[in-house]
Design a protein that fits this description.
- By secondary structure, the chain is mainly β.
- It has helices at residues 53-61, 65-71, 76-82, 85-89, 91-94, 341-346, and strands at 4-8, 11-15, 33-34, 37-38, 41-42, 46-47, 100-105, 111-116, 121-126, 136-140, 143-147, 154-159, 164-169, 179-187, 192-202, 209-218, 223-224, 228-233, 235-244, 247-254, 264-270, 277-281, 287-288, 293-301, 304-312, 320-329, 332-338, 354-359, 362-367, 373-377, 382-385, 400-405.
- The strands form 9 sheets. Strands 14, 15, 16, 17, 18 and 22 form a 6-stranded mixed sheet that branches. A 4-stranded antiparallel sheet has the order 9-8-7-32, with no helix packed on it. Strands 10-11-12-13 form a 4-stranded antiparallel sheet, with no helix packed on it.
- β29 and β30 form a beta hairpin.
- The radius of gyration is 24 Å and the shape is globular.
Length: 412
């Protein structure tokens, strides 16, 4: 069977076989005719075109999101309904989609594979612009924020499903940053989003003192607020931060050479009460990590602050013995789970470097060296593999990366 390729505003959706031959997807045939039979007598066919738009909307809203995009290619009427503002504003009510995962690699084109965790299917997919695996990526409520880590001059806010995006210029840094961290949060009730960019700059030759700047953008005010300036002694921010309940959480790293157990920590900043100067942050302001970590990531899952990281060996903290998930309660970390050993072995090429991304109820973990994708469901407290992705390595040192997001039809 030839593969089915459909394009939505330039994005490719590919399946192994046409949806009309697969159960449970609910894709309709153009001008489907309803025919009643009585005693083997065929009545005059009745086309669903006679149904009003409200009924068509109710029919379409019962489909999974991937099928909705495919249905928009069925006929002009469905295309107009699906892309109407009235229909997209309803999507938050009728869509109960889990987060999806976009996997990509070092390529000259913005292409990759998109995993639908609800239907457990992969699709060929293309972003509207190039994204490198070194970029900072921050998802929230259907939108994804991208920042080029090398230039840090522009930010892209994008809805991957509709391919809509806008570009936002970043104001110049007050110094010469060595590290930059991006955080992004959407408030759907107020139709606004908040972006923060944290930059750290070396302030002493011994690497102990670091200057820190926090720049915040409010979409309602359409402006960058004056930068918040501060410094850290013995600690420095890296490239990991997240916004949860309008509090900015920043992962920090110890710069004291004799520290092993508490090599990582976290600082917080309340975005409801922005102070242009935070002075020199003391050790007491740092929330210590639960153990020696590698590849630590902060994420907002179920409106909770979640930490995912590799658990370092006591004598060799840079070498992991497993992967753990913690939730912050006050200033203490509560361990939720550790990856069972059979899943650690299942990665094959899993080393001390891996990617993790979370949202909704799901947390995704992927090795940079391969396409195996492991998922943890915070609701069921279960680990499971995704379906196998057909992406393959083109050369031995090829790097794979990815991020998850909530599929939505509306931009804001």
């Amino acid at each position: 069977m030839d593969s089915l390729n459909l394009y939505v505003d330039g994005a490719s959706w590919s399946d192994d076989e046409p949806e009309v031959y697969r159960k449970g997807t609910g894709v309709f045939i153009p001008n489907l005719e309803i025919i009643e039979t009585d005693n083997n007598q065929t009545e005059n066919p009745v086309s669903i075109d006679v149904l009003p738009d409200d009924i068509h909307e109710r029919i379409l809203s019962c489909l999974p999101l991937s099928a909705i995009f495919k249905a928009s290619s069925v006929c002009k009427r469905w295309y107009q309904i699906i892309h109407s503002k009235k229909f997209t504003l309803k999507d938050a009510n009728f869509l109960s989609e889990k987060t999806w995962y976009f996997m990509f690699t070092s390529s000259v084109e913005p292409v990759g594979y998109l995993y639908d965790s609800g239907l457990r299917k992969w699709y060929n997919f293309e972003l509207p612009f190039m994204v490198h695996h070194t970029w900072n990526v921050a998802p929230s409520c259907g939108l994804v924020c991208f920042m080029d880590d090398e230039t840090s001059k522009a930010i892209y806010i994008c809805n991957p499903m509709t391919r809509e995006y806008e570009i936002l210029n970043i104001p110049p840094s007050p110094g010469f940053p060595v590290y930059s961290a991006l955080a992004f949060s959407v408030d759907q009730s107020k139709s606004k989003y908040t972006i923060s960019v944290v930059r750290s700059m070396q302030a002493s030759d011994d690497f102990l003192l670091w200057n820190v700047s926090i720049q915040v953008y409010d979409s309602q005010e359409t402006t960058w607020l004056p930068p918040v300036m501060g410094a850290m002694q013995g600690w420095r921010p890296g490239d990991v931060s997240v916004i949860c309940d309008n509090v900015l959480y920043i992962l920090v790293f110890c710069t004291r050479s004799n520290e092993v157990q508490n090599f990582h920590g976290m600082i917080t900043y309340n975005l409801d009460n922005i102070n242009p100067s935070i002075g020199i942050l003391k050790d007491e302001s740092v929330i210590l990590a639960p153990c020696a970590l590698t590849c630590g990531r902060l994420m907002n899952v179920q409106r909770k602050l979640v930490l995912v990281g590799g658990i370092g060996r006591p004598n060799r903290p840079g070498v992991i013995k497993g992967i753990g998930i913690w939730v912050l309660n006050g200033r203490e970390w509560t361990e939720i789970t550790r990856m069972p050993h059979k899943f650690v072995q299942g990665f094959g090429e899993l080393d001390d470097v891996f990617a993790s991304s979370g949202g909704g109820d799901l947390i995704y973990i992927q090795s940079y060296g391969g396409t195996a994708l492991l998922i943890y469901d915070m609701n069921t407290r279960q680990w499971f593999w995704s379906q196998k992705c057909s992406m393959h390595k083109k050369f031995p040192l090829e790097i794979f990366s990815g991020f998850c997001f909530e599929p939505r039809l509306q931009f804001m």
